[in-house]
Amino acid sequence: MGIFGRSAKQTELEAEVSAIRRSQAVIEFNLDGTITSANAIFLEAMGYAGDDIVGMHHRIFVDAAERETPDYREFWKAMARGEFQGGEYRRIAKDGHDVWIQATYTPIVDSSGRPTKVVKYASDITRAKMHLANIEGQIAAFNRSQAVIEFSLDGTIIDANDNFTDVIGYSLAEIQGKHHRMFVDPTDRDSAAYREFWARLARGEFQAAEYRRIGKGGREIWILASYNPILDPKGKPFKVVKLASNITEQVMRRKKTEFVSSIVTQVAAGAEELEASIRDISQNMLRSKDAADTAVNSVDAADSQTARLTAAAASMTGILDMINNITGQINLLALNATIEAARAGEAGRGFAVVANEVKGLAAQARHASDQIASEIESMRGISSDVLMGLETIKASIDSVRSFVNSTASAVEEQSAVTGEMASTIQRAAVEAMALQAAA
């Protein structure tokens, strides 16, 4: 029964070894490292045929810089003493490319416990190693160029690189174990939006945007950042990694550009309004010029009419002189008639009455003539005053017209300059907005 039991155990072990050899790369060595055999999986991984390697030393798979080192010699001495070796190893294939293996070097001992050979079981992990190297390289690149900080799902700070601490102004010891809210403005940290921000990250939802943060001492910092939930093998988030770039200078420049653009736009609008106002003033000045020209023409017409009135008054003075002369002659005739009536006595009494009436009429005519002469003289004085006033008005209107002409010309020039200025400012506003968009 014992013999059959040992045989069954041996059969089981042989089956296990066979299964391992079918799934793993296997190679056997003497205790000095000389190759005695290798299975097909190993040969395929390293690019050799069996005859290429049997009898050769293990060092053919080792980098030249490593094979002559004390560590490599000790590696084989340890196995010759029966000491197990295992780990990840970089090996060189036949064509010179790197092959990474996860391997165990197992010394096989005889019945007395002395090592007789070494069996190596290996798995080709080159693809996984390169994938890991790629990931680690990307992480290293991020750490070199980006500010990186890690959080637990509730926002507690786990770790941060030097770039992040340099940007925020804190040391790692000052922030580790504290909540992300220490970087957030007090008006935002207690808001529903901030709570939802972390709730979404805990659900595995990516977040990215420009963020305003508060550094040490209350310093305002702007970052372009992504908050990346990291998933475990089951696909559940277990932490958040934030990658950030400091864009404070760019944001400040953009804000200045926006401010300048706003001012330029306002100035441009003001210049356009000024241009419109100047156009209105120019039109009003032209209308004033036309009104002044019309007034001058009216004054000239009134001046001409007043001159004719003065001439008519002068003519009437001559007529009055003639009337006065006739009145004098009538008085003289009346006097002569009175004298003759006195000589005629009773017979000339009726004639005397007529003579008195004629004399009275002559006196009335003289009185009326004197009044007319007085009115004509008054009219001549008024006409003279009117002429002088019209001359003064005309001189004033001429002065106003000259001023209006000068002002209208200046306004037209100013309108042209303002129009050009408005156009220039408008172009500046467009360029400022373009710079703002580029920023």
From TrEMBL:
<dbReference type="InterPro" id="IPR004089">
    <property type="entry name" value="MCPsignal_dom"/>
</dbReference>
<dbReference type="Pfam" id="PF08447">
    <property type="entry name" value="PAS_3"/>
</dbReference>
<dbReference type="InterPro" id="IPR050903">
    <property type="entry name" value="Bact_Chemotaxis_MeTrfase"/>
</dbReference>
<dbReference type="GO" id="GO:0007165">
    <property type="term" value="P:signal transduction"/>
</dbReference>
<dbReference type="Pfam" id="PF00015">
    <property type="entry name" value="MCPsignal"/>
</dbReference>
<feature type="domain" description="PAC">
    <location>
        <begin position="85"/>
        <end position="137"/>
    </location>
</feature>
<dbReference type="GO" id="GO:0004888">
    <property type="term" value="F:transmembrane signaling receptor activity"/>
</dbReference>
<feature type="domain" description="PAS">
    <location>
        <begin position="148"/>
        <end position="190"/>
    </location>
</feature>
<dbReference type="InterPro" id="IPR004090">
    <property type="entry name" value="Chemotax_Me-accpt_rcpt"/>
</dbReference>
<dbReference type="InterPro" id="IPR013655">
    <property type="entry name" value="PAS_fold_3"/>
</dbReference>
<dbReference type="InterPro" id="IPR035965">
    <property type="entry name" value="PAS-like_dom_sf"/>
</dbReference>
<feature type="domain" description="Methyl-accepting transducer">
    <location>
        <begin position="260"/>
        <end position="439"/>
    </location>
</feature>
<dbReference type="GO" id="GO:0006935">
    <property type="term" value="P:chemotaxis"/>
</dbReference>
<keyword id="KW-0807">Transducer</keyword>
<feature type="domain" description="PAC">
    <location>
        <begin position="207"/>
        <end position="259"/>
    </location>
</feature>
<dbReference type="InterPro" id="IPR001610">
    <property type="entry name" value="PAC"/>
</dbReference>
<dbReference type="InterPro" id="IPR000014">
    <property type="entry name" value="PAS"/>
</dbReference>
<protein>
    <submittedName>
        <fullName>PAS domain S-box protein</fullName>
    </submittedName>
</protein>
<dbReference type="GO" id="GO:0016020">
    <property type="term" value="C:membrane"/>
</dbReference>
<dbReference type="InterPro" id="IPR000700">
    <property type="entry name" value="PAS-assoc_C"/>
</dbReference>
